[in-house]
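Supplementary Methods, section 5.1.

A reviewer requested that the exact input to the structure prediction be made available. We therefore reproduce it here, unchanged from the version used in the analyses.
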Amino acid sequence: MFVRSLHHGITCTCICSAIPLCSESIKGLSLVTRSQSRDHPLDSLPACSPCSSAMLRLTACCLLLACAVYLSSSAVIMENGAPILWGQTAGQVTDLPIQNGMYNPDPWNFLQRLSMYRLMITATDPLMGYMGTSATENPMWGLPLQLVWMLTSGRLTDPTGATTCGLQTGDPMCVSTSSWWGCVSYFVSAMPFLSAAKNDFFGEGVQVVLQVPAGVTEFCTTYDDCKSRYPDVMAKWDAFFQGLKNSDKSPLPDNEKKDAILGLYWEAQMASTYASAACSAKKSHYTSTEMSFASSWLNSAEYVSAARFQSSLERSEKFITPLPGRILKDGDSAPNIADLSADENHTLNVFTWMKNMNTIMGGGLVNMWRSAMCSVVTREKGREVLEQLLLDPAFATGTVLSIITSMATSC
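The structure derived from this sequence is encoded token-by-token as follows.
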């Protein structure tokens, strides 16, 4: 047995046992956590005891997930080369729930929402050979990693405190319909999944109706429903999936083909992001500090999308890992948040700088960046600049304007 004190003030006790867990890499462990703090939804976790039931195996898995999060100085979003809990997701569409002859996944269950991403990645991978030599170059990998970060940082729980959705005392795999983060995620999970099904990526004529909690009517649940409410979003996801199907016939060299498909992908993702303004009422459940971060997080997508960032598994992990590992509280001020890592503080500081500079310039920084991302060459340079800006604390933010201006002169 060993005991470690964690950087959030948690004590984590891991004990050898015979519990059959959900992951081979953590088989044989059970866990107890104790905390003096009640700020994090994974705090004050109960102990798990040997039992062969599926529910207790999942509970043990969730407890170990919590321990893994706290044992790291930044977010833990990967396990054995895949997103956390990836092995517990549906490997094929026939693994999804079925009702009245139609597939009926529940996007308000974390594992089922993660399953939707796995199925989309599996279905599109064969058409993305030009993305690179690795098996994980698909740009859709960024979305499940983002969802995992939301789970491990507590952002999918009920922010109102009215339910135990997402908490260890309730259903730890529950995604709250009151969560702003869960709502924004819905627009980049449900809508592409429904479009992929409509475009026969899961088999010809496959029909999907998404589950929704009783009494909740604000979310579209079928392709036709989403197309009626958000026609531009669905049109852009359709264009992406159709573009993928047609890419093997394209005469373009692989680098230009890749750039074109990434362009369609980011147009669709940004359309979903803009449509998620429908989630705005849920912002009132959070501190102003958290929502300021959320705004800067959305703002950062403008730069990433314009550069047509290839959000492969490896690249996405580098950018998502340093995001703040808990919901921000009043009084949190980067780069001096004591219980966040140096990387988390740096990321928050850079996000704030980017948003503030753009505000001061009346939207001019984003517009300059978009104008500079005018070719395959400048977009490649733009991706390098973003990596330096976000991941290298020694990079001088003051040089960004001159770099953008220099890139724009070649357009």
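The beta strands are 2-5, 10-16, 29-35, 78-79, 82-83, 98-99, 102-103. These observations are discussed further in the main text.
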